[in-house]
Adenylosuccinate synthetase (Leptospira interrogans serovar Australis str. 200703203), 211 residues
Amino acid sequence: MPASLVVGTQWGDEGKAKVIDFLSKDTDIIVRYQGGANAGHTVVVHGKKYVFHLVPSGVIYDQTICVIGNGVVLDPLFFIEECDRLQKEGFPVFDKLLLSDACHLLFPYHSQIDSARETTLSQEHKIGTTKKGIGICYADKMMRTGLRVGDLLDTSYQTRLKHLVDEKNRELDKLYGMPPVSYNDINEGLKFFLSKVKKNIINTAYYLDTD
């Protein structure tokens, strides 16, 4: 199956969204393969502006299936808010969206630590992060300590989540003097997230290889 790959080689704001929107009109599957909910991108169709952060912009076209791949770090509640907003704008997001079971989840402690680290750096060493926790979540992925979307399909994830929250709260307290995040709030959010997307979770690598 022929494919077109759009890669940003600078620091964002390169016009990727315009290229993707142009290609989407004649494309069956749109894949978001990495990144998180940073500044996002804007697409204008028939004079109306649509803003996307995690959901592939191809969702606005009738023929496309949109895939969020295993390289994305996903803020679950932000993602649901975006999907619900697009649903209200008339796009059947949940009917045409596939979500990788290997996609890593981004939690409040990621953004808290991201913000704390950026704040404590001297001016010449600041990264300029958006403080959304994306880099911190990728660090957990590389260290094999994060949770993936597919982990939520087994309730045993709650034990791992409790351990992670306890560990990150110690870091927030001892290193940065910041208040803890709530395990219960995060877990309730994940239950809500799963109730909305359970039917959309698949092995997207297998889907793309065999479709």
User: Anything to note?
Assistant: The radius of gyration is 18 Å. The longest strand covers residues 41-45. The chain has a mean pLDDT of 88.
